[in-house]
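Incident log entry.

Two folding requests arrived from the same account within the same minute. Monitoring flagged them as a possible duplicate submission, but the sequences differ. Recording both here for audit purposes.

Request one:
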Amino acid sequence: MKKALGPAFLFFFFFLVYLVSAAPSVFWWDSGELVANVRTLGVPHRPGFPLYVLLAKIFSYLPIGNFVFQQNLFSGFCGALALVFFHLALVRFLGRQNDLLGGSAARRNLVAFFTTLAVGFTFTFWIQAVRAEVYTLGAFLFTFSFYCFMRATSPSAPTRQGAGAGYSSLPEPYARIKQALTSDTEAGNDWPAVITVGNHRTARWFWLGIFAAFLGLGNHHVTLLATFPFLFAVAGPATFGGLSLKKWVGVFFLFLLGVSTYLYLPVRAWSQPFFNWGGPSGFSSTANLVLATDSFKTVSLSVTETFFKMHRLLSLLFDQLGIGLFFFAFGGLLILLFANKSWFWKMALLLVGNLLVTSLLAAEVIPDNPDLHGYLVFSLFALGLGIAVTIAAFFGVVERAAGAVSNFLVGFARVGLAALFLLFSLIPWTFSRPYCDLSENRIALKMAQEALSPVPPGGVVFLDSPALDFVLRGVQYGELWRRDVVVVNRAFLAADWYRKSLVENFPRLATVFSSVPKKKDPDSFFRLWASRLKQKKVPIFVEFTERDRELVERLQPTGFLFQLIDTAFVLDTVAVEQQLMWEVANLWTEDDRVVQNDPQAVKMLVLYLYRSGLYYEWRGAKKKALSRFQKTVAWGEKGEEVQKRILKLEKEITLAERKKTGSVPIAVSEPKKSRGKLSR
């Protein structure tokens, strides 16, 4: 009972932290889409995340807050569980080291607590636990599997046998592999690294670990696959080599059971849910969705580029941990290189494998992209192992040195080191809290509501930005707000499965959405469908893009969106003044703390201001355009394209004013060339 108090405290502590910092409503990007899919039991984007959808749906029946908040809280629940099992695995990991690194049970628990505290407060982990996302569920399944394998190899009484003792029952090749991957004699003990699968006490943990690992494949298999070499090494190659045919059948059965969650995708797709990404009703379409075959087209095999990305990813982790904890992490790896080579290579497998997979999958390394950090969670666990080793080594060295002088100094040294490492473990909290405390962040909700408010019932909205599209989905189906509006993503119009989904779910507009132009590109579909909707007198609102210049005369600004009208829109009207008043009332100022701490909100605002500037520039309203471009710069956008447009407009406005007065125009100074690019 006493042993459960520590993990229980850790769980409730982190669950409370994630509870009070959770987003109150819809957040950006995949969060909105996942919320909508859980509500409707739909099929999300590749690889489909069936396990997440089903478990999050079950969690939504708990009487806690509204539906969207429940989904955000589910991530926090899984995150707290993941940290608990990481802590338990750390305690057992330290117990496998020599006396200097392991020490007493109290010291091991204290070191594991400090390490878990540091990991749980990093931006990489914390931002996953306060919004609807799949990454904390994957982290939980990984740490649980890790703990199960550590538990399965729990040592009995250590023996002082020879290097090859205990392996005589194994086939000779596996005995050699086992000896190569373990260095127990170097660590000062002889803990067995072979799981006795026939023993009920250890076998149950072995099978639980196997099942958890395979079950994780039904959540986000790409990220979890990178951890399999590490888990395989922890369980022991000799363990798998010694399995009988019957037990291998059991492993294969658990694999099938774990990945069987993907059967949800075609079964649910046959029912035509509202969200049905890829339409995985057949074997080929399901395989394409699950295996994410389209993503392979963007994978770069350049060795130089891959190493550069891996360096960038390590830099992201360094920025969060700070120089102290980052030094601890790699210091721990160095210590293990000399003290326990087996664990050094295991940790290297986890760290390098995760960094490599992430660098291959990420088209570019965007530091403030939360999804990118979701991929890096496992690298964080690897660094956490290194941090634990260094802290344990400090405790061991200082305690021995103090004990050589006086027993009184040992207790004093322990208290001092505990206070010091507690401060170190809170370093990530100081960096992450402004960005991860989303308790007051309702920006995505407000933007979605402001976008849909001007749309009459039954209207159709054509969007271009996936971020805004996913947010609107979350608001419509998570908050159940403005379900009467039809939202269409222009980027998907060329996909057969997407058009079929529109036809199935909006029968009143089936004739429009089933229309196919001669040229099957998104813009051709948009133009054809817009003309058909106009014939039916359906109100049309669009997210204005750079590709809509030919429509600019017929677009009337209405908040974040523009309404497509039948005749040319005259700028000198009350509607423009109303738009200006709306911007003053609803657009955030540069000193808004919540917006400044939400990089995606800043990008969305910059995108709106830039495109609005394009609209007014193309309409000939140069001063209005200049004002919006200048606001994009005030929000931190330093792209060269914006600078050129500002310079061009300033010259044209100055020339026009000088022409009116008949004076010679004054040259406008050239702006400094910026290396930045416009955020799109």
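Request two (distinct sequence, not a duplicate):
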Amino acid sequence: MQSEIYQLAALAPDSAKVCAEISRRYAIEPQTLSALMDAATVACREEALMLTAIDADQDAVCAALGKSIDDFSGIAISPQAKRLIQNLAAFESLSQLNTSEQSTESLRRLLLVMVEDPRTVLLALVRHIRLLREAIAQQSECVAMLAQAARQLYGPLAGRLGVAQLKWELEDLSFRVLEPSAYKSIAKRLEEKRLDREAYVERFIEDLGQRLREVGIDGFEVSGRVKHLYSIHRKMQKKDLRYDQLFDLRAVRLLLSNVADCYTALGIVHGAYAPIPGQFDDYIGQPKPNGYQSLHTVVMGPNNKSVEIQMRTFDMHREAELGVAAHWQYKEGGNDQSAHRVVQRLRALLEQGELADELNSEDLFSERVFALTPRGDVIDLAQGATPLDFAYAIHTSVGHRCRGAKVNGGIVPLTYALKNADSVEVLTSKEESPSRDWLIQDLGYLQTNRARNKVRHYFNQLDHAQHLEDGREIVERQLRRFGLELGDVQKLVQRFRVANPDDVYVGVGRGEISATQLIAALEHIVSPPAEITTRKKRATTTSKSDVHVQGVGQLLTQLASCCQPVPNEPIVGLITKTKGVSIHRSDCINMLNLPDSEHHRLIEVSWGEEPERNYAVRLQLEAYRRDGLLRDIGQVLANRKVRLLDIQSHYDDAQDTQFMTLEVELSDSNALGVLLHQLHALPNVISAKRGR
């Protein structure tokens, strides 16, 4: 098996054995191979043998042997192999960047984007395995760092490239270092060594193949694998299973020509080996949501050892490995189609043994751009993003304080379009002061919605402070006019169903709470029943109700308690099931939030020609004494057609002020607010408010 060669790489990478194996598999000139072997270090020979085990091509193996050579004079190495060595150096410099958990996925993508030839990834993978092996053997201080990189970066990369042999060792080595107790526990439970399990699978494959040929099935391929330690550990954790509940420690994959052969093979398998109940899945008849198709079953093989068998057609296998149902996508939870397209192309190039000369990296991840912070963190941004987008992606405060940027050491404008692997340094000021120009799309400062929203929020906060100040002034003035204390603002909080007084102030300042709503709420607070007297009804009414319902004669109506409309306010009717028409203010929050499906219940309504109720209201005025004040007050009342019922006045000689108490008759609360406003606007008037 290939794993035997792979194990040889770890156990005995001496020159003679490596040379013999490479000579057997590749058409390298003996003189060139001999020169490479003489110059290659033990480490390089180990990596070359690992590449041989995974069927890497000749140039990759030569690059592994020659990467420690400075002078290739007299060694006929191909230009492609030399370029791989150069690419590997650049790749490894990128791989040393910060690999914090939040940036690991972006770093994986950046490495895939930047690599010119996908075989460079293979060289980097075997190098990291060799380094991790050495660190474990020598108990090096850097072993934990290497293991973490193997788990976060190199293992997933190997999985996405479909190089299972490298993936499982990277995962097992990192598992051994990072979780030693769990590693030892699972290793002790395995009754056989890995090579013994692989040998068992080989014998099972031979037996299964013979049975298929006996019934006339041909053109099939069968392969097997054994589950590695980290995979066992992950499955036990993910599905909360005990070790004895795992049935897929040994697995066989059977590829057939058509669907009919798949089901025929299933019958043969179940006839030859006892199936384990509850372990059969038909993903051909009922594919997985991602399109994956296969028959899965688990049987008891020779010596009562469980074996998982997967049966699918060649087309299904191709789709599972390279299509939208690629194993790495659903296994790792990814759902990025652009990432999938890149991996598909990289894997196709690897499997076909073709060079990547025509691979245009500019269209890889065309929707994204990956830039670097000075300390090496990878920032994933939309294509066309600017240094300002980059600043906001780091932190909102960095964006607000951004005043310039350096890209790869040089000053660039904030409208510069970032490119993959650009190193960006954001120049900041001490104070946060973003520009409103950044929101003008045509100027090109910001390309991402996330950054624009942060700038908008900043200016909304500035406006928030202004709205808060303006609203507080308006509310406090109205409270004084209605004879209320500042503490009564809590009643407005309850009335408008907000969290705190600041929400009331901001709502008033922004106009979300209209003057009519505010005055109506205050009227509701200060108008106990004793203060409201019902005058005799006018004779000239057209309805028994104060409200007319358009197109309908006499109809039951009621004023809604949620917004309590008063005469002259804009209103709308809502047809109820049992209580006729409920009358709401047009700006009632419940009406504004009414679902579209309920809009058919709305009906036009209007106040009657003459309201049936009038309010006797007491007003209090304080003013500096002057001639003509009473005349001016009377003029305001006359202009507003407000009837004066009573007036009392007295003077404070010490303060030279005059206090007046007026009792007037008003038809609605809106009239009260307007009247108080006009009285307060008179010269020398200090305050005008509702009396108690």
